[in-house]
Design goal:
- With about 300 residues, this protein is of the alpha/beta class.
- It has a single domain, classed as Rossmann fold (3-Layer(aba) Sandwich), CATH 3.40.50.300.
- Strands 6-7-5-8-9-10 form a six-stranded mixed beta sheet. The protein has a two-stranded antiparallel ribbon with strand order 1-2.
- A hairpin with a 2-residue loop joins strand 9 and strand 10.
- Helix 7 crosses helix 10.
Length: about 300
Protein backbone atom coordinates (compact mmCIF):
# COMPACT_ATOMS: atom_id res chain seq x y z
CA UNK A 1 0.00 0.00 0.00
CA UNK A 2 1.32 3.41 -0.93
CA UNK A 3 1.57 5.77 2.03
CA UNK A 4 -0.37 9.02 1.86
CA UNK A 5 0.43 11.79 4.32
CA UNK A 6 -2.74 13.35 5.71
CA UNK A 7 -1.01 16.73 5.93
CA UNK A 8 -0.19 16.60 2.21
CA UNK A 9 -3.77 15.70 1.39
CA UNK A 10 -5.15 18.61 3.44
CA UNK A 11 -2.62 21.01 1.96
CA UNK A 12 -3.85 20.07 -1.51
CA UNK A 13 -7.47 20.54 -0.45
CA UNK A 14 -6.77 23.99 1.00
CA UNK A 15 -5.01 25.10 -2.17
CA UNK A 16 -7.88 23.84 -4.32
CA UNK A 17 -10.57 25.66 -2.35
CA UNK A 18 -8.88 28.97 -1.60
CA UNK A 19 -9.88 30.25 -5.05
CA UNK A 20 -13.53 30.37 -3.99
CA UNK A 21 -13.13 33.25 -1.54
CA UNK A 22 -15.28 36.18 -2.53
CA UNK A 23 -16.90 34.50 -5.53
CA UNK A 24 -20.21 33.40 -4.05
CA UNK A 25 -21.92 36.79 -4.14
CA UNK A 26 -21.84 36.96 -7.94
CA UNK A 27 -25.07 36.57 -9.88
CA UNK A 28 -25.94 33.34 -11.64
CA UNK A 29 -27.62 32.37 -14.88
CA UNK A 30 -26.92 31.59 -18.53
CA UNK A 31 -25.18 33.67 -21.18
CA UNK A 32 -27.85 34.79 -23.66
CA UNK A 33 -27.76 34.51 -27.46
CA UNK A 34 -26.20 37.93 -28.16
CA UNK A 35 -23.58 39.01 -30.67
CA UNK A 36 -20.91 39.43 -27.98
CA UNK A 37 -21.63 36.06 -26.39
CA UNK A 38 -21.63 34.39 -29.82
CA UNK A 39 -18.27 35.99 -30.57
CA UNK A 40 -16.87 34.65 -27.30
CA UNK A 41 -18.44 31.22 -27.80
CA UNK A 42 -20.27 31.18 -24.48
CA UNK A 43 -23.97 31.17 -25.44
CA UNK A 44 -25.90 28.87 -23.11
CA UNK A 45 -23.04 28.51 -20.62
CA UNK A 46 -23.67 29.14 -16.93
CA UNK A 47 -22.06 31.96 -15.00
CA UNK A 48 -22.08 33.14 -11.38
CA UNK A 49 -22.80 31.25 -8.18
CA UNK A 50 -24.47 28.24 -9.78
CA UNK A 51 -21.36 27.64 -11.88
CA UNK A 52 -19.29 27.92 -8.71
CA UNK A 53 -21.44 25.25 -7.04
CA UNK A 54 -21.02 22.90 -9.95
CA UNK A 55 -17.28 23.48 -10.00
CA UNK A 56 -17.11 22.97 -6.23
CA UNK A 57 -18.94 19.64 -6.49
CA UNK A 58 -16.56 18.57 -9.25
CA UNK A 59 -13.55 19.67 -7.19
CA UNK A 60 -14.66 17.51 -4.25
CA UNK A 61 -15.07 14.55 -6.60
CA UNK A 62 -11.71 15.29 -8.25
CA UNK A 63 -9.93 15.46 -4.88
CA UNK A 64 -11.51 12.17 -3.84
CA UNK A 65 -10.56 10.68 -7.19
CA UNK A 66 -6.95 11.86 -6.90
CA UNK A 67 -6.73 10.50 -3.36
CA UNK A 68 -8.16 7.13 -4.42
CA UNK A 69 -5.62 6.89 -7.22
CA UNK A 70 -2.81 7.08 -4.66
CA UNK A 71 -4.45 4.37 -2.58
CA UNK A 72 -3.89 1.56 -5.12
CA UNK A 73 -3.97 -1.72 -3.18
CA UNK A 74 -4.36 -5.42 -4.01
CA UNK A 75 -7.97 -6.53 -3.58
CA UNK A 76 -9.71 -9.89 -3.76
CA UNK A 77 -12.58 -9.05 -6.13
CA UNK A 78 -14.69 -11.95 -4.83
CA UNK A 79 -15.09 -10.18 -1.48
CA UNK A 80 -16.41 -6.86 -0.22
CA UNK A 81 -14.10 -4.26 1.31
CA UNK A 82 -15.97 -4.79 4.58
CA UNK A 83 -14.98 -8.48 4.68
CA UNK A 84 -11.34 -7.62 4.03
CA UNK A 85 -10.83 -4.52 6.20
CA UNK A 86 -13.44 -4.87 8.97
CA UNK A 87 -13.91 -7.26 11.88
CA UNK A 88 -17.34 -7.40 13.55
CA UNK A 89 -18.13 -3.89 12.34
CA UNK A 90 -14.80 -2.40 13.42
CA UNK A 91 -12.61 -1.15 10.58
CA UNK A 92 -8.87 -1.75 10.79
CA UNK A 93 -6.84 1.13 12.21
CA UNK A 94 -4.71 1.26 9.07
CA UNK A 95 -7.76 1.50 6.80
CA UNK A 96 -9.24 4.28 8.97
CA UNK A 97 -6.03 6.33 9.03
CA UNK A 98 -5.06 5.90 5.40
CA UNK A 99 -8.48 5.90 3.73
CA UNK A 100 -11.39 7.02 5.91
CA UNK A 101 -9.94 10.08 7.65
CA UNK A 102 -8.51 11.75 4.52
CA UNK A 103 -11.88 11.38 2.75
CA UNK A 104 -13.68 12.90 5.74
CA UNK A 105 -11.19 15.77 5.87
CA UNK A 106 -11.74 16.55 2.18
CA UNK A 107 -15.44 17.08 2.91
CA UNK A 108 -14.80 19.06 6.08
CA UNK A 109 -12.45 21.42 4.27
CA UNK A 110 -15.01 21.93 1.49
CA UNK A 111 -17.76 22.66 4.03
CA UNK A 112 -15.92 25.33 6.02
CA UNK A 113 -17.44 28.31 4.15
CA UNK A 114 -20.99 26.91 4.06
CA UNK A 115 -23.88 28.88 5.66
CA UNK A 116 -24.68 28.42 9.34
CA UNK A 117 -28.46 28.61 9.61
CA UNK A 118 -28.86 25.37 11.56
CA UNK A 119 -30.54 23.60 8.64
CA UNK A 120 -29.94 20.19 7.06
CA UNK A 121 -31.37 19.27 3.65
CA UNK A 122 -32.50 15.67 3.15
CA UNK A 123 -33.01 14.46 -0.42
CA UNK A 124 -35.64 11.73 -0.61
CA UNK A 125 -36.42 9.52 -3.59
CA UNK A 126 -36.49 5.96 -4.89
CA UNK A 127 -33.54 4.68 -6.96
CA UNK A 128 -33.66 6.07 -10.48
CA UNK A 129 -36.29 8.71 -9.60
CA UNK A 130 -34.17 11.60 -10.89
CA UNK A 131 -33.14 12.78 -7.42
CA UNK A 132 -29.80 14.16 -8.63
CA UNK A 133 -31.42 16.02 -11.52
CA UNK A 134 -34.05 17.56 -9.23
CA UNK A 135 -31.37 18.55 -6.70
CA UNK A 136 -29.37 20.33 -9.39
CA UNK A 137 -32.45 22.09 -10.70
CA UNK A 138 -33.47 23.28 -7.22
CA UNK A 139 -29.96 24.65 -6.70
CA UNK A 140 -30.18 26.39 -10.07
CA UNK A 141 -33.54 27.93 -9.09
CA UNK A 142 -32.19 29.07 -5.72
CA UNK A 143 -34.41 26.75 -3.67
CA UNK A 144 -31.32 25.07 -2.18
CA UNK A 145 -28.21 27.05 -1.26
CA UNK A 146 -25.47 26.45 -3.82
CA UNK A 147 -22.71 26.47 -1.18
CA UNK A 148 -23.83 23.35 0.65
CA UNK A 149 -21.67 20.24 0.53
CA UNK A 150 -23.42 17.00 -0.43
CA UNK A 151 -22.83 14.02 1.86
CA UNK A 152 -23.41 11.32 -0.73
CA UNK A 153 -22.41 7.63 -0.32
CA UNK A 154 -22.29 7.23 -4.11
CA UNK A 155 -19.66 9.98 -4.43
CA UNK A 156 -17.57 8.39 -1.67
CA UNK A 157 -17.96 5.03 -3.40
CA UNK A 158 -17.21 6.09 -6.97
CA UNK A 159 -14.42 8.57 -6.23
CA UNK A 160 -12.93 8.13 -2.76
CA UNK A 161 -13.04 4.32 -2.99
CA UNK A 162 -12.54 4.23 -6.75
CA UNK A 163 -9.48 1.98 -6.58
CA UNK A 164 -11.57 -0.78 -5.01
CA UNK A 165 -14.87 0.11 -6.68
CA UNK A 166 -13.46 0.03 -10.22
CA UNK A 167 -12.04 -3.50 -9.84
CA UNK A 168 -15.54 -4.92 -10.24
CA UNK A 169 -17.00 -5.13 -13.74
CA UNK A 170 -20.62 -5.39 -12.56
CA UNK A 171 -22.63 -4.74 -9.41
CA UNK A 172 -19.68 -2.80 -8.03
CA UNK A 173 -21.87 -0.82 -5.65
CA UNK A 174 -22.28 -3.80 -3.34
CA UNK A 175 -18.52 -4.34 -3.08
CA UNK A 176 -18.00 -1.07 -1.22
CA UNK A 177 -21.55 -0.45 0.05
CA UNK A 178 -20.94 -0.88 3.77
CA UNK A 179 -17.65 1.01 3.73
CA UNK A 180 -19.01 3.99 1.78
CA UNK A 181 -22.03 4.14 4.12
CA UNK A 182 -19.75 4.10 7.16
CA UNK A 183 -17.49 6.83 5.73
CA UNK A 184 -20.52 8.97 4.84
CA UNK A 185 -21.71 8.78 8.45
CA UNK A 186 -18.27 9.96 9.55
CA UNK A 187 -18.44 12.77 6.96
CA UNK A 188 -21.79 13.86 8.41
CA UNK A 189 -20.36 13.86 11.95
CA UNK A 190 -17.42 15.94 10.81
CA UNK A 191 -19.57 18.51 9.03
CA UNK A 192 -21.98 18.78 11.96
CA UNK A 193 -19.06 19.38 14.33
CA UNK A 194 -18.12 22.39 12.19
CA UNK A 195 -21.70 23.64 12.64
CA UNK A 196 -22.58 24.37 8.99
CA UNK A 197 -25.58 23.50 6.81
CA UNK A 198 -25.22 20.58 4.41
CA UNK A 199 -27.12 18.11 2.20
CA UNK A 200 -27.69 14.42 2.88
CA UNK A 201 -28.11 12.97 -0.59
CA UNK A 202 -29.57 9.50 0.05
CA UNK A 203 -32.84 7.68 -0.75
CA UNK A 204 -34.60 7.75 2.66
CA UNK A 205 -37.42 5.51 1.41
CA UNK A 206 -37.47 3.39 4.59
CA UNK A 207 -39.80 5.11 7.09
CA UNK A 208 -38.14 4.07 10.36
CA UNK A 209 -34.67 5.06 9.14
CA UNK A 210 -35.97 8.42 7.90
CA UNK A 211 -37.74 9.23 11.17
CA UNK A 212 -34.71 8.11 13.17
CA UNK A 213 -32.48 10.52 11.26
CA UNK A 214 -35.00 13.37 11.59
CA UNK A 215 -35.19 12.75 15.36
CA UNK A 216 -31.40 12.75 15.63
CA UNK A 217 -31.12 16.06 13.80
CA UNK A 218 -33.96 17.67 15.75
CA UNK A 219 -32.38 16.58 19.06
CA UNK A 220 -29.27 18.48 17.97
CA UNK A 221 -31.44 21.57 17.48
CA UNK A 222 -31.27 21.48 13.68
CA UNK A 223 -34.11 22.30 11.30
CA UNK A 224 -34.82 19.79 8.54
CA UNK A 225 -35.84 20.51 4.95
CA UNK A 226 -36.87 17.48 2.92
CA UNK A 227 -36.99 17.63 -0.87
CA UNK A 228 -38.75 14.53 -2.21
CA UNK A 229 -39.17 13.23 -5.75
CA UNK A 230 -42.41 12.23 -7.48
CA UNK A 231 -41.85 9.75 -10.29
CA UNK A 232 -43.18 6.80 -12.26
CA UNK A 233 -41.48 3.42 -11.62
CA UNK A 234 -41.31 2.80 -15.39
CA UNK A 235 -39.30 6.01 -15.77
CA UNK A 236 -37.12 5.02 -12.80
CA UNK A 237 -36.36 1.69 -14.46
CA UNK A 238 -35.61 3.33 -17.82
CA UNK A 239 -33.20 5.80 -16.23
CA UNK A 240 -31.41 3.00 -14.36
CA UNK A 241 -31.03 0.92 -17.53
CA UNK A 242 -29.63 3.92 -19.40
CA UNK A 243 -27.19 4.63 -16.57
CA UNK A 244 -26.08 0.98 -16.45
CA UNK A 245 -25.48 1.04 -20.21
CA UNK A 246 -23.21 4.06 -19.83
CA UNK A 247 -21.26 2.84 -16.79
CA UNK A 248 -21.18 -0.90 -17.53
CA UNK A 249 -22.39 -1.61 -13.99
CA UNK A 250 -25.70 -3.04 -12.88
CA UNK A 251 -27.93 -2.11 -9.96
CA UNK A 252 -28.63 -4.69 -7.27
CA UNK A 253 -31.56 -6.01 -9.32
CA UNK A 254 -31.89 -4.77 -12.87
CA UNK A 255 -35.58 -5.57 -13.34
CA UNK A 256 -38.74 -3.49 -13.37
CA UNK A 257 -40.27 -5.26 -10.34
CA UNK A 258 -37.38 -4.01 -8.21
CA UNK A 259 -38.20 -0.40 -9.13
CA UNK A 260 -41.92 -0.90 -8.61
CA UNK A 261 -41.18 -2.26 -5.13
CA UNK A 262 -38.98 0.73 -4.26
CA UNK A 263 -41.54 3.15 -5.70
CA UNK A 264 -44.29 1.60 -3.56
CA UNK A 265 -42.10 1.87 -0.47
CA UNK A 266 -41.34 5.51 -1.28
CA UNK A 267 -45.05 6.33 -1.61
CA UNK A 268 -45.89 4.61 1.67
CA UNK A 269 -43.04 6.32 3.53
CA UNK A 270 -43.88 9.73 2.11
CA UNK A 271 -47.56 9.37 3.09
CA UNK A 272 -46.65 8.36 6.64
CA UNK A 273 -44.17 11.24 6.87
CA UNK A 274 -46.79 13.80 5.85
CA UNK A 275 -49.32 12.37 8.31
CA UNK A 276 -46.79 12.36 11.17
CA UNK A 277 -44.65 15.37 10.33
CA UNK A 278 -42.38 16.29 13.26
CA UNK A 279 -41.93 19.86 14.47
CA UNK A 280 -39.31 21.94 12.71
CA UNK A 281 -39.58 19.95 9.47
CA UNK A 282 -40.48 21.24 6.00
CA UNK A 283 -41.32 18.94 3.09
CA UNK A 284 -41.50 19.85 -0.60
CA UNK A 285 -42.14 17.33 -3.37
CA UNK A 286 -41.07 17.85 -6.98
CA UNK A 287 -41.64 16.11 -10.30
CA UNK A 288 -39.47 16.25 -13.41
CA UNK A 289 -41.39 17.32 -16.53
CA UNK A 290 -39.77 17.99 -19.91
CA UNK A 291 -36.36 18.83 -18.50
CA UNK A 292 -37.62 21.02 -15.66
CA UNK A 293 -38.96 20.46 -12.14
CA UNK A 294 -42.33 21.46 -10.72
CA UNK A 295 -43.64 21.61 -7.15
CA UNK A 296 -46.25 18.91 -6.54
CA UNK A 297 -46.97 19.47 -2.85
CA UNK A 298 -45.51 21.01 0.29
CA UNK A 299 -46.09 20.93 4.02
CA UNK A 300 -44.32 22.30 7.06
CA UNK A 301 -44.69 22.18 10.82
CA UNK A 302 -43.22 25.07 12.75
CA UNK A 303 -41.52 24.71 16.08
CA UNK A 304 -43.95 25.36 18.93
Amino acid sequence: MNDVKLSDCLDTVQKQFVTYDGIYKSRSGFYMNTYENKRLGRVGQRYGSIRVEEDKKKKVEKLLDDFSYKMSVPLDVTQTTESQYSNNGVWSAERVVKVHRPIVDIYKQAAKDSPKTGTVVLMMGAPGSGKGFILNKLIEKGKINNRLVRANPDAVKKYGLKTDYSKYSQKAAQSTHEESSHITKEVIKGIENIGVDYIQDKTFIEYNNLMKEISRLREKGLKVKIFATKSDPKDDYRRAVERAAKTGRETARMDEDYFRMNHAQMEETFSRLINNLPKGVTVERYKEVDGDVYLVSNKSRNEE
